[in-house]
Write a structure and sequence with these properties.
With 264 residues, the chain is α+β, with helices and mostly antiparallel strands. It contains 11 helices and 14 strands.
């Protein structure tokens, strides 16, 4: 392991003050950053551990939204009575992430900032039209994910919380990798007063909306509305786990399953 400066601030303001270096990195759960450091894929000059920043943790549900602090672990979201009541599909999604160790260490903010193409939370952020709150601004879901491990976050910008609007109904379905439990493909479908949204993860370089599916479901929220529809395979991921054509097929299958679960 190479040398770096380690910091453990107790407030987000202190954390921000420590992030002046262009090579400084925030450390949330460390589920991706630490393995990347071990493999020399990233070499931060400063590691800013956010585990003591209490203001970044917690869940608040009220009225029409659920707000989750960036340092809230997946296990807390999965077990939250408030999330289960307001958005059960979101609690279910959190319970599908990795294994117990990952769910108890990994955080929602770290997952979104990393934007792994096979991560689960991005599908919910897109599907529920969530808002990402940072130390500098608010970023709507449709503007956040930019590409492979790329987001709208600027250097030194810190995710502080995520606000999820409460839908009328929603469901998440995924085809998981048998070892890592990452999403080979995952689809989050949500019906709200403003319309239907379909968020897809695992299939492409980053999470995206299946707009053709949304249009069909806005007319009839039923699995049958998606018969004959598909997403183009061009530009989708193709690797040893699944080819682009198969991922395109999975998007359609999982979308129908998610609609059936949400409608049922």
């Amino acid at each position: 392991m190479y040398s770096f400066a380690y910091h453990r601030p107790s407030s987000s303001a202190e954390a921000q003050g420590l992030s002046k270096s262009a090579d400084a990195r925030f450390l949330a759960g460390g589920m991706t950053l630490l393995p990347a450091m071990k493999l020399r894929l990233t070499q931060p000059s400063d590691l800013i551990d956010l585990s003591r920043v209490a203001e970044l943790k917690g869940i608040k549900a009220g009225g029409s939204e659920v707000r989750i602090g960036a340092m809230t672990p997946h296990a807390a979201v999965a077990a939250s009575a408030e999330v289960r009541k307001a958005i059960p599909a979101l609690a279910g999604l959190a319970g599908m992430i990795g294994d117990p160790q990952v769910r108890n260490r990994g955080t929602i903010g770290g997952s979104l900032a990393n934007s792994d193409p096979a991560a689960d939370y991005p599908a919910a952020v897109i599907g529920l039209n969530a808002t990402i709150h940072t130390s500098r601004r608010t970023i709507p879901a449709d503007s956040f994910f930019k590409g492979l491990f790329e987001t709208a976050l600027e250097p030194g910008e810190l995710i502080t919380a995520v606000s999820f609007p409460v839908p009328e109904r929603a469901a998440y379905e995924k085809f998981r990798h048998p070892a890592s439990r990452y999403a080979v493909v995952g689809v989050f479908v949500a019906k709200t007063a403003g319309g239907v949204r379909v968020g897809v993860t695992g299939a492409g370089p980053c999470a995206f909306r299946a707009t053709q599916f949304e249009q069909a479901l806005s007319k009839s929220f039923s699995p049958d509305a998606l018969k004959g529809l598909s997403v183009p395979s061009a530009g989708l991921n193709s690797d040893i786990h699944a080819g682009a054509d198969y991922r395109a097929h999975l998007v359609a299958v999982l979308a129908r399953r998610a609609v059936a679960a949400a409608a049922g």
